[in-house]
């Protein structure tokens, strides 16, 4: 019934469970923990820079305030993105997409890089084009998977970079994402694990990578069914548990 692929462990916002999310220390830890993939989020600053951060506003994860779209790169770079998490990370900065990609290249990372376009609340005009342009001038040794809750962003990225992979993110509407895969508008589905479990929504022939798979119970559920991947805040623990279950 299930295919026997090894489930990829994808680090959510870097290694969100053990480091300040979406910072270079978080991505470095994910690599050191043996993650097969890295998931992160991208927004656009006022002056058109691709900024790696989860929220539309900087308030929760930095010592600043305001919308990313209303701040310049210089203003964002002046913020501390580590102290809110722990004093140990004081002075950690919000990275740009280019800095994250460079870290992965420097570490000879060859897994998957899942870039989530955060266009579901604010539609940053032209962000897809900027991301496409960036990867056209920056060849990378890893596989690119673009995802978004915003269907239009997935389709636009697909048109711009037909050789990458695409996934539709969803919390509740699994059938729309499934339709997109059937219509070759996306390669994969990135569902909320709660939806997967509640609706027993498992399509073994499709690339499903649920989020955020943090409990051992949820990890075991996905590993036993050989999901294509899981997106987790705890890549180190997930890699160890996968070893026990899948060998
Ligand atoms: O890409 C999976 C997951 O990151 C989606 O939700 O809010 O953590 O970006 P969020
Ligand atoms: Mg995300």
Automatic annotation (TrEMBL):
Classification via InterPro entries: GP_PDE_dom, PLC-like_Pdiesterase_TIM-brl
Pfam families recorded: GDPD
Domain GP-PDE residue range list: 7-242
Gene Ontology molecular function, alphabetical: phosphoric diester hydrolase activity
GO terms for biological process, alphabetical: lipid metabolic process
Top-level taxon of origin: Bacteria
Protein name, UniProt field: Glycerophosphodiester phosphodiesterase
